[in-house]
Design brief:
Layout (H helix, E strand, L loop, with lengths): L1 E9 L3 E3 L9 H11 L3 E5 H6 L8 E5 L12 E3 L2 H10 L4 E6 L1 H7 L5 E7 L7 E2 L8 E9 L9 E8 L4
Parallel strand pairs: 1-6, 1-7, 3-4, 3-6, 4-5
Antiparallel strand pairs: 2-8, 7-10, 9-10
Length: about 170
């Protein structure tokens, strides 16, 4: 099973501000939806709570230490990243996506085989950041760059990194 981080991050590694994205980039949301549709997604409780409701067409595995936390039917509460990954392996999933937040990304880095990163050419104000990672451990296997336009106010690139040595 491929464990994949998917994230949009700015040049300064910003990923969030007050529980929301610090930008509006419709092309990234479309890419995110297309990439994760039909898959299991892992996220922390705080990230899950920023959603209005579970993302359609995906099974959510929500990590929390709260033993009384509940999620809508068809989704699952787990109490560790390892437990979430184990569910994916038990179900023999081809791929599972890590959606954040920052602490979950940090915990997930050692388990990840790939990272699908929307790299946004911006330095927004933020209170949440993607963790640093050793670029030498990764190879860029796909990259498409896009200039800003009337709907997307920043230059950005969709970049897929694959780990050189599989965890």
């Amino acid at each position: 099973m491929i464990v994949s981080i998917i994230v949009a991050k700015a040049t300064n590694n910003a990923i969030g501000l007050k529980g929301d994205l610090p930008w509006r980039l419709p092309a990234d949301l479309k890419h995110f939806k297309k990439t994760t549709a039909g898959h299991h997604v892992i996220m922390g409780r705080k990230t899950f709570e920023t959603l209005q409701k579970p993302l359609p067409g995906r099974t959510h595995l929500v990590i929390t230490s709260n033993r009384n936390y509940s999620v809508p039917e068809g989704h699952k509460v787990v109490h560790s990243l390892e437990e979430a990954i184990a569910i994916g392996k038990e179900k023999e999933l081809e791929k599972i996506f890590i959606l954040g937040g920052a602490e979950i990304y940090k915990l997930a880095l050692p388990y990840c085989h790939e990272m699908i990163i929307t790299e946004i050419d911006a330095y927004p104000e933020a209170d949440t950041y993607f963790p640093d990672f050793e670029k030498g451990d990764w190879v860029i296997c796909d990259k498409s760059t896009h200039p800003k336009d009337e709907n997307n106010p920043f230059n950005f690139a969709f970049v897929t990194y694959r780990r050189k040595a599989v965890p």
